[in-house]
Design a protein that fits this description.
Blueprint lengths: L1 E6 L3 E3 L5 E3 L5 H12 L3 E7 L10 E6 L2 H12 L5 E4 L6 E2 L20 E2 L4 H7 L4 E8 L4 H15 L3 E6 H5 L4 E6 L4 E6 L1 H12 L6
Parallel strand pairs: 1-4, 1-6, 4-5, 6-9, 9-10
Antiparallel strand pairs: 2-3, 7-8, 10-11, 11-12
Helix pairs in contact: 1-6
C-alpha cells in the first residue's frame, strides 16, 4: 500500500534572507514512515526543510519549504494512487503575502509585517482524493482532555479525516509527548505516551486500511 507521510515545519519568507516558521522536528512523522516501511508499505515522506526524514527500503523523500510547495507535491502524489495520508506536518496558518526580493536593511527602526491566512491543507486532501484514508493532527496549548476531544472532533468533521491525533504542546516540549487518537466510528484511545508508541499505534490503525 502506498502511504504519504507529511512531517516537519513549513516556512514563509519575508525577504530573501528571513522567514517565519513553526516548531516541529519531524521526529514523529519520521518514526511513522519508518514503521510503515518496515511493514512493507511504500512510503513517500514529504518533509519540511531543516527537519529530519526517514531513509531506507520502501521510503522516498521529498523536501519542501512553503505551504504552496506542500500543496503542489500533495496534488501530484495523491494522483499516483496513495491509499492513506498521515498529515503530521506543522503547516503555517498565516504567511507573508509576498516575498521581498532583496534583504530588508537592518537600519530600519521597525518593520511591520502583515500576515494573511494560508490555505488549510488538511481540508484539501479529501477533495483531491475522496477515497484516501486521512490521519490528521491537532496541536493545542495547555488544553485538557475535553478540549482536545472537542477540537479534534471539529477538525475531523471539517476535513473529513478518518482519525485525528490530538497533542498538547506542553507535553511535546517537555519530551514526554502524550497523545489521544480519535476516529470517525467513535474510536478513542487516550494517554499514549512517547513518540514511539504514538507512531506504533498510528501504523496499527493504518494496517486496518484495505487497499482498493
Amino acid at each position: 500500500m502506498k502511504i504519504i507521510v507529511t512531517s516537519g515545519p513549513t516556512r514563509s519568507y519575508l525577504d530573501e534572507i528571513r522567514y517565519i516558521s513553526n516548531y516541529s522536528t519531524g521526529e514523529l512523522g519520521t518514526l511513522i514512515a519508518k514503521k510503515a516501511a518496515l511493514k512493507g508499505h511504500r512510503v513517500t515522506q514529504i518533509y519540511g526543510k531543516g527537519s529530519i526524514a526517514a531513509s531506507g527500503k520502501n521510503i522516498r523523500n521529498i523536501e519542501i519549504e512553503t505551504v504552496d510547495e506542500l500543496l503542489h507535491v500533495l496534488k501530484k502524489e495523491l494522483k499516483s494512487g496513495a491509499k492513506a495520508v498521515v498529515h503530521a506536518m506543522a503547516v503555517l496558518d498565516y504567511v507573508a503575502p509576498e516575498r521581498i526580493k532583496t534583504k530588508v536593511k537592518s537600519e530600519k527602526k521597525s518593520w511591520t509585517v502583515k500576515l494573511v491566512r494560508a490555505p488549510k491543507v488538511i481540508n484539501e486532501i479529501k477533495k483531491l482524493a475522496p477515497e484516501v484514508k486521512l490521519f490528521g493532527f491537532k496541536l493545542e496549548y495547555k488544553a485538557k482532555k475535553d478540549r482536545l476531544l472537542k477540537v479534534s472532533g471539529a477538525l475531523m468533521e471539517k476535513s473529513g479525516a478518518d482519525y485525528v491525533v490530538a497533542n498538547d504542546f506542553e507535553s511535546v516540549k517537555a519530551k514526554r509527548h502524550t497523545a489521544i487518537i480519535i476516529g470517525k466510528s467513535g474510536f478513542i484511545k487516550g494517554d499514549i505516551t512517547g513518540k514511539d508508541k504514538i507512531a506504533a499505534e498510528i501504523v496499527n490503525l493504518l494496517e486496518r486500511v484495505k487497499p482498493c
